[in-house]
Amino acid sequence: MREPVYPIRSGDYTAEVVARGAGLRALEHSGRALTETWEADERPPLSAGLVLAPWPNRIRDGYFYFDGVEHQLALTEPARGNAIHGLVRRDDWQLVEHSAHRVEQTIRVGLHKGWPYPLQLTVAHELGPSGLTVSHTATNIGAMPAPFGLGVHAYLRAGDTPLDECTLRLTAGTRLPLDPDRMLPVGNSESVYGTEYDFTTPRSLAGVQLDTPFSSIVPDPDGRARHELRAPDGSGAVLWADRRFGWVQVFTADPANGKGYPGRGRALAVEPMTCPPDAFNSGIDQVVLGPGQSWSGTWGIGAL
Fold it and tell me: How many other CB atoms are found less than 10 A from the CB of residue 281?
């Protein structure tokens, strides 16, 4: 059975959203790709475009302690002994509404191994004159307080320009060091200024390898923080996020590290997140939703 695909359009922008993981399969402006894509009915490579909830990134040993109770999640990254990217990225979301320029989907996070917290999630992808706006909500529909975090595995693209010819600018002043073997936090956040992780001014991505959570994100006066990928001619894509997304994970897909993006080789994920890896253990920026309480956040992508 063919997976549902929802095309949307506004002006020079076109996009496709799928049901599996509420994934953003494609986004273009005047025929120029702003995100990486994949073939319809195929599994998104490297979790491209998928919603990551009720936690993004990794939980150490799949274990966390919350509200006086120990929890043991399924180890969905067994090679590293972690629970990774939440519970909804491989499930089909249910369609709420689909119009010419907007699609809204929802999913219920039911009970899973180590997860006794029912949640209702919604996501709306909408195109307008300035590009794509993605709006998320999460509601605790259970009887107990619930921990929560959310991220999106977005891949930016500057048309057909190879990644090594592009520059990256991040509005982020610190980075969280990770253990390279398990990709879990070690130590406290560190300033990026003057280091190899300093992208506060545009820098070439030639040969750069990243799998790094950044924070200390400084928004513009409109409350949105912006991260930019540009080709040599200045065109490209900008990913923005509101204040609810205090983190951004940046990852370079690369055949050299065994994670090349199909058909592209090197590619760049710029992932807005509400919290860092292993937040359910560190407590850093962990959201707690009381019974009946809701959370909302917004991000988007536009053309440069």
Answer: 17
Report the C-alpha gap between 256 and 260 in whole angstroms.
7
Three-class SS state of 154: coil
Q: DSSP per residue over 27-90, as a string?
A: EEETTEESB----TTSPPGGGTT-EEBSS-SEEETTEEEETTEEEE---SBTTTTEEESBSSTT
CB 172 within 8 A of CB 248: yes
Q: Which value, to the nearest 10 degrees, does the dihedral of the CA atoms of residues 127, 128, 132, 136 take?
A: -80
Give the integer Cα–Cα distance in Å for 261 and 268: 9
Walk across the sheet containing 119-128 and list its strands.
94-98, 102-109, 119-128, 131-140, 294-303, 236-241, 225-230, 167-169, 203-204
In tens, the pLDDT along 41-69 reads 789 999 999 999 999 999 999 999 999 99
The pTM of this model reads 0.97
